[in-house]
Specification:
Number of strands: 12
Shape: globular
Subcellular location: Cytoplasm; Endoplasmic reticulum membrane; Nucleus inner membrane
Helix content: 40-55%
Distance between the termini: 52 Å
Mean pLDDT: 77
Enzyme class: oxidoreductase
Low-confidence stretches: 69-99, 108-199
Main location: cytoplasm
Strand content: 5-15%
Pfam families: ERG4_ERG24, LBR_tudor
GO biological process, one term: cholesterol biosynthetic process
Structural class: alpha+beta
Largest sheet: 5 strands, antiparallel
């Protein structure tokens, strides 16, 4: 086994991934198995580098001294030779001048080669006092451009990086393209290095209480769903009135399970239809981009047409209400079977396709969190499909079934105002998610979390059967509200939706195209990863404004149910707990990813979700 070359704590020069630039780093640890050094940059970023991508500081000093001494010595010797020539020999003098000119050009090329490597090392960690830039890349003040922005603008192609650095320091004439190409070709042979292959590491920090916590969640989540639905069926759904346990045979019916399978397959057919545009997701750890077909809104329209046909032929949609508990059990059983399939297939998945948060090596934890990041059957992406289709569209169908059940049970010619508000608010939320389907590709569910029991159960069971809790509650517990109260609740929901949508739009547009002229008035803090942290707009108000909008909308969905019982407000309580957990996870993830830039952002934006409170 080869011995390590650099010791822990040693300060060396490490190559930045995807570029030809080296920066001062400190070795923190060494992996004997993968033969990778974990190094820490001055901004707090930690990366795993191969030994071939690390250089000692002495080698850079040697190159710098060569670049600064070789050309002057040659120029001085040339001048001494020119003084000794006889004026009577002009032809020979001209020949020697031409030779010296070529030699001088060669020296200049070598100097450029060495200086373009050495300069960034010397100046990259001299940031200006104000690192906040506008979207168009112009500084906020009239001070000299911050040289630390070189890190942020690095490209994956070394040729382009070399070109930009040379132009930044005016080391060549920008009009002489032919000479530039020669310099670049020589540069390639001098510093070309193979790209760093990112090797997935084991998940060390476990969420949800680790192995014991995730094991308990496997039973707690289904039990919570059954408890909530049983409570809504009672005449007095108070917390002290615990519902009786239902008989096991009453929880299962083969016909109901068959209907659920048909529903899942119908949405799969709509997903596979060649309609809608195809877009690329964010780069994976391997640099590859997966393709996704954006047709969720079309699937919703087709589903509405199918439901309309069923109602036209007098299909009793309130069958969902009569067998609601059985549908929930069928969905839970299907999600469990799907989770088992996902984990078994993940055992054969390549290392680079595993989820960074679900690769702990513990069976229960990885089964719950999700071991594989993007499980696919051909071009059919299982996680992306379940994220928006069966559960989210099913939520709207369930709400409609509850509305029809309320009209039938209470002999109403029109639905109650409370039921109309709940259906309308949640329909707007679902339609917005499907209309902006492309935005889900930048969420942590897609980019970071694996597809296991947590997401499978959440997408197929929790979303359709818990998010529809208010409509299910109103069927057995009708609530009358006045028009002024309904108007006030509508304003509250619109306000929450405005925050939610505008904040998400700012974030998604920034991630897709930071140079968009529409965002020129916004500012961000640059980071060492090449991305920026917004400090104006909604993201300069609180760190997670989309979560704030979510909570306001959840409150508006519950208010039409009145205040007789706390059960309809379970969703609000759950949502606050969920978002606080996500916020804590996001804070930890961003601190590791962005280092000192995230600390500056937290100082600039002190409040997390609730302004002046939290």
């Amino acid at each position: 086994m080869p011995s390590r070359k650099y010791a822990d704590g040693e300060v060396v020069m490490g190559r930045w991934p995807g570029s030809v630039l080296y920066y001062e780093v400190q070795v923190t640890s060494y992996d004997d198995v993968a033969h990778l050094y974990t190094v820490k940059y001055k901004d707090g970023t930690e990366l795993a580098l191969k030994e071939s991508d690390i250089r000692s500081q002495s080698s850079f000093k040697h190159r710098k001294s060569q670049s600064s001494s070789s050309s002057p010595s040659r120029r001085s010797s040339s001048r001494s030779r020119s003084r000794s020539r006889s004026p009577g020999r002009p032809a020979r003098g001209r020949r020697r001048s031409a030779s010296q000119s070529r030699e001088h050009k060669d020296d200049k090329k070598k100097t450029i080669q060495e200086t373009s490597l050495a300069l960034p090392v010397l100046v990259l960690f001299k940031p200006s006092e104000n690192n906040t830039k506008r979207y168009n890349g112009e500084p906020e003040s009239t001070e000299k451009n911050d040289t630390s922005c070189i890190i942020l603008e690095q490209k994956l192609k070394p040729d382009l990086e070399v070109k930009r650095v040379l132009e930044q320091y005016s080391l060549r004439s920008r009009k002489d393209d032919k000479k530039t190409e020669e310099i670049y070709s020589e540069k390639k042979t001098f510093v070309a290095v193979k790209p760093i292959e990112k090797v997935p590491t084991k998940t060390k920090e476990l969420e949800f209480g680790g192995r014991i916590g995730t094991f308990m969640m496997l039973f707690l989540l289904p039990a919570t769903v059954l408890y909530l639905l049983s409570m809504c069926k009672q005449d007095d759904p108070s917390l002290l009135n615990f519902p009786p346990l239902p008989a096991l045979e009453s929880l299962w019916e083969g016909k109901v399970f068959g209907i659920f399978i048909l529903w899942f397959l119908l949405q799969a057919v709509f997903y596979l239809l060649p309609i809608g545009k195809v877009v690329e997701g964010l780069p994976l750890s391997s640099g590859r981009r997966l393709q996704y077909r954006i047709n969720g809104f079309y699937a919703f329209i087709l589903t509405a047409a199918v439901v309309g046909v069923l109602l036209y032929f007098e299909f009793e949609l309130h069958y969902l209400y009569d067998h609601f508990m059985q549908f929930a059990v069928s969905a839970a059983a299907f999600s469990l079977a799907l989770s088992i399939y996902l984990y078994v297939r993940s055992l054969k998945a390549p290392e680079e396709e595993l989820a960074p948060g679900g690769n702990s090596g513990y069976f229960i934890y990885d089964f719950f969190i999700g071991h594989e990041l993007n499980p696919r059957i051909g071009s059919f992406d299982l996680k992306y499909f379940c994220e928006l289709r069966p559960g989210l569209i099913g939520w709207v169908v369930i709400n409609l079934a509850m509305l029809l059940a309320e009209m039938k049970i209470h002999n109403l010619s029109v639905p109650s105002l409370s039921m109309i508000l709940v259906n309308s608010f949640q329909l707007l939320y679902v339609v917005d998610a499907l209309w902006n389907e492309e935005a889900v590709l930048t969420t942590m569910d897609i980019t970071h979390d694996g597809f296991g029991f947590m997401l499978a159960f959440g997408d197929l069971v929790w979303v359709p059967f818990v998010y529809s809790l208010q409509a299910f509650y109103l069927v057995g517990h009708p609530t009358t509200i006045t028009w002024p109260i309904a108007a006030a609740i509508t304003v509250l929901n619109c306000f929450g939706y405005y925050i939610f949508r505008s904040a998400n739009s700012q974030k998604n547009n920034f991630r897709r195209n930071p140079a968009d002229p529409k965002l020129a008035n916004l500012k961000f803090i640059p980071t060492a990863t090449g991305k920026g942290l917004l400090v104006t707009g909604w993201w300069g108000f609180v760190r997670h404004p989309n979560y704030l909008g979510d909570i306001i909308m959840a409150l508006a969905w519950s208010l039409p149910c009145g205040f007789n019982h706390i059960l309809p407000y379970f969703y609000v309580i759950y949502f606050i707990c969920l978002l606080v957990h996500r916020e804590a996870r996001d804070e930890h993830h961003c601190k590791q990813k962005y280092g000192l830039a995230w600390e500056r952002y937290c100082q600039r934006v002190p409040y997390r979700i609730f302004p002046y409170i939290y």
